[in-house]
Amino acid sequence: MVRDLVQSVASLCRDERRLKAGVGRFLGVAGFAGFMAIGAHVKIALPGTPVPFTLQTFFAVLAGAFLGPLDGALAIMTYLGVGALTFPIFAGDGAVGLAYLSGVTGGYLLGFLAAAVFVGFMVEWTNNFYAHLASFACGMALIHLLGVVHMSYVLHIPMIKAAMLGSVPFIPGDILKAGAALTAFMWMRSHACGVKWKYRMPWCR
Questions:
Q1: C-alpha angle 8/12/15, rounded to 5°?
Q2: What letter would DSSP give residue 86?
Q3: pLDDT (tens digit per residue) in 13-63
Q4: Which pTM does this prediction carry?
Q5: How far apart are CA 183 and CA 193, in angstroms?
Q6: Roughly how many angstroms between the first and final C-alpha of the chain, as a whole number?
Q7: Whose CA, among 101, 107, 150, 199, lies 20 to 30 Å from 164?
Q8: Which domain holds residue 73?
Q9: Distance CA 49, CA 44 (A)
Q10: By the 8 A CB rule, do 61 and 132 touch?
Q11: What is the CATH number of the domain that holds 134?
Q12: What is the number of domains present in the chain?
């Protein structure tokens, strides 16, 4: 068994292309997990709502577009997993770990995962610019939807009231963040793949 493992590692190391791809995937997943943690602490507390304004929605949809649905999901899950271990990387100032995940804003954390997967699939499925723009907007909408549903359940308040607390105040900002995320994706894609502002492929292969 040990010999087979050594041979597998040696084979992987000989295959420089596979090794670079593996390292690239790891750095992408770890990098976006880190961006999510940074985005959580770039926040503005808004009066009358328990939900802060952060940059996490920006990084969540960008992770799906840049990494694809699988690695995008892994990046968000890595962020959530590290946070569940009580590391202070969530946006809240009080509860940490699993208590925060099940708290008032826990639905938004699940929304980050759903948005990354959805945007990742859409970017791989279509190369149409307007479809990509719509997918980024829908990714933001998924975050809002899951956040509001969870908040309504935890606080025992009607969905309309939860939406007024946790969605409506953030719509203008998240529209801007969706546009900024798409622009950032286009810029990174053009520089990484040598395809300038063209939607020939959803991501270079």
A1: 145
A2: T
A3: 556 666 666 777 888 899 999 999 999 888 888 888 888 899 999 999 999
A4: 0.82
A5: 15
A6: 34
A7: 101
A8: 17-193
A9: 11
A10: no
A11: 1.10.1760.20
A12: 1
